[in-house]
């Protein structure tokens, strides 16, 4: 696939980018080079190769999930949290109605 000056002008107008005539002429070989490189990448045999998300393999440092590990923030303190609320309704924070 190759592009010409009219195609570059059309892409620039779709992207709402103001490009002068001299810049259009300069972009044609650059875009054709990029498209040729992408076509060359399509020819590479990648069967049996797993997709990767990064070049360097990263491992997340995970911790075990422990329910109620901290007595202050671990859960099971609904009543004491709602005691500070200006309005509590059915075990949740009550908020004023904003849409009628």
Summarize the structure.
The chain has about 100 residues and is mainly alpha-helical. The protein has three helices and two strands, in the order αααββ. A two-stranded antiparallel ribbon has the order 1-2.
Topology:
Layout: H1 5-14, H2 21-42, H3 78-82, E1 88-89, E2 92-93
Antiparallel strand pairs: 1-2
Structure commentary:
It is elongated, with a radius of gyration of 29 Å. It contains three helices and two strands. The chain has a domain at 5-40: Histone, subunit A. The chain is mostly helical and 100 residues long. The protein has helices spanning 5-14, 21-42, 78-82, and strands at residues 88-89, 92-93. Strands 1-2 form a two-stranded antiparallel sheet. The two termini are 56 Å apart. The longest helix is centred in the N-terminal third of the chain and has 22 residues, at 21-42.
Shape label: elongated
Proportion in β-strands: under 5%
Q: So what's the CATH class of the domain at 5-40?
A: Mainly Alpha
Low-pLDDT runs of 5+ residues are: none
Helix content: 25-40%
Find the structural class using helix and strand composition. Answer: mainly alpha
Order of helices and strands: HHHEE
CATH architecture annotation of the domain at 5-40: Orthogonal Bundle
Major β-sheet profile: 2 strands, antiparallel
Radius of gyration: 29 Å
Oligomer: single chain
CATH topology of the domain at 5-40: Histone, subunit A
Q: Helix tally?
A: 3
Taking strands numbered 1, 2, ... along the chain, how are they ordered across the largest sheet? 1-2
Straight-line distance between termini:
56 Å
Total beta strand runs: 2
The overall pLDDT, averaged over residues, is: 87
